[in-house]
Amino acid sequence: MEAIALLGRLLGLSFVSGINLYATIAVVGLAVKFKAVSNVPPELYVLANDGVIGLALVLYFLEFVADKIPGLDTMWDLLHTFIRPFGGALLAFLSVANGSPVAEVVAFMLGMFIAGLAHATKAGTRMVLQISPEPVSNVVASVGEDVIAVSMAYIAMKHPFLSFFIVLAIGVVLWFVLPVLFNAVSMMLRGLWWRISGRYSSLEDFSDLPEKWKTVWSKVRESEERVKWCGPAFVRSVPSTRRFSSGWLVITEAGVYFCLRRMGRKRVIFRRGTGFVWICRPGRLFYLCRIYFDTGEEWEFFINAASEKFFRAKLFELEKKA
């Protein structure tokens, strides 16, 4: 039980340090100073110093403001890429500083890993919110993170046993969430690069499928089927397909295809028939395109802004023929 409580404090403080380091230090310092918690490791009493608490509150106020301004929050997260993991490692070290040298080294490394993982999840999620076509408020996301940081820091100090199982549950969730988040961040970075480099913006026609996809597509298409439009796309919602997966969307007179890699193998998801309608909504880096099939099924993709006008024109031609 004592070992689990020790791990609960160590993991809890490390995790919330990756979300908001300054709020964590302030909460721990205030809790120790006003004796709101018991069984505190002696080394953590340094955080109860008035100067430490005051500086942590000032820095937390700066983060509170910066974290709610689109664009500035991303820059703030980039600035703290090394600060938060190191802060989490230091808090983990202080939690076991009266133990053996081996325990101290292990705690430091574990704290850095947990805090780094939490920071990467927070920063990646906020970057994805920046490009989403939906008007998701940075303020709502930031306030939610503040609430989690403050409450979890207090729980880690007051109820370390509970903290252990909370962090364990969060770890299980992240096991499934992180691959999707990785795809989302990759999509955003590629979108930024396309915009900066002007890639695809000089093309006058989007009907030439890249060679790497032609072989696998030829296995499922009709013999006389020709490409009307194709372009790079990322999945927002396609049945049995991971969100933000990258590939090539192909529109023909006979159907809709999406070429992608799954488990290292090239695959094609397709629906034949001309009975579909579409809607495109502009976003900051991508257009969100919805394709509604007459079967009631719906596909959603993020497509490059440079190719959207050709996408719209070609689908309009198909609608007139239908």
Automatic annotation (TrEMBL):
The keyword Transmembrane applies. The keyword Transferase does not apply. Residues 11-178 form the DUF4126 domain. Keywords: Membrane, Transmembrane, Transmembrane helix. The chain crosses the membrane at residues 12-32, 44-66, 102-120, 161-182. It comes from the Bacteria. This is DUF4126 domain-containing protein.
